[in-house]
Amino acid sequence: MQINSIKIKHILCAGYFFLFLPGLFAQNIPEILQSIDFDTIKHHVRVLSGDTTVVIGDSTRKIFRRYTNTTFTELNDITLAEQYLKETLESFGYEVHVKKVYEKSGFDVDIHDLLVVKEGMNYPGKYVLCSAFYMGFPWLGHPEKINPSADMNASGVATVLEGARVLKNIETDYSIIFALWGMDDGAHSFTYEYLSNPFLDKLIFNVDVEAIGYDSLNLHEIIPQFTTLNNPFLNEIEYIIKQVDSLIINNDISLIQGRPFSSRGYAQIESDICPGISFIQSVVHPDSNDKIIFNPHCWYGYDHINHFNPTIFFERAKAVIGTVAHIAVNGIPGNLSAESHPIVNFPCSYTLFPNYPNPFNASTTINFYIPGDDFISLYIIDVNGNFVEQLIMQNMNAGYHNIIWNPVSYSSGIYLLILETSHVQNYQKLVLMK
Description:
The protein is an alpha+beta fold.
């Protein structure tokens, strides 16, 4: 996969707020960017990563750790973290909608999605979605050890919280949904309850945020990714990419764009439902197109401020919030959507569904869909990009398929499942816990 670096075209210098970019931004976007408080963002990260105490309810508490696995239920601070997030959103003046994670996610712990709605002035029934997951992982393979953190996406959650605070009283044409998922990679109520979801067919854009504080290769890059295959919203996505490029404030920051490996997962909803962009912590190594670089601290549940590049983190947070603000204020030009459709019956493209169960300790079922006869390669790699096991390499007929992976000889950890064809490369994260 080739990922191209895009040169910064527009730099926000002190005192000069895009005066040379007529029509790109509403007048209040620069003020919104200025109002973002990095100390507040860092405070949320410290609380969610178990680094500091905070008043939750009527007492001072510390969120020690939060796992999405029933084995660790008695050790979890899931409800405590949820209470902190709910109270924080309520302190901004929102009514918080609490919905249990969809039961088919495979977990019986009491985990919830938290959603708030900031209503638009002119198009209150059309929504921009800004979301992050707030779950955590145990110390992989070592349940007897105390994980030093409660969260693997503290940076993403903190950014969504700050966006909700900053934009609460800003007049926007379109409504905004700020969502904090109790599970990652689409295993939440918003995706699974597609047919009954009152918002899904009214989304105009989706912004997903995942562990943006860590600069894996010290590249000083913001990495929005999106799905290209059979996506009816390519014009809208390219338009937003240009806006993100213009929102980058520090001239040491460059923008990389590419496509994620899966239509589900990064974007947290099906990519054919609406245009979307995902700010993530993984990149394709510039010297090796097939080597995926992840935030190693994140995957061990330690998305901690001490591991971040503060300048990069703040600029990424501004790019995320500025993107949401720009779309909510300006919408997406109507002439871009001439060939788009608000809903596409899915799956209509190559789809690698979330495996079930996940995490798992013995075997897991993998389901995927291919729209036409094709040569399929389905294989496993580890987070360092090392090949682990080939599951399928053959011609297959169109339709739904499934396979069971039983990794008896492999150790606990994060693995990547990759579906590769001549047209697409999709991926899912697998969590093996023995």
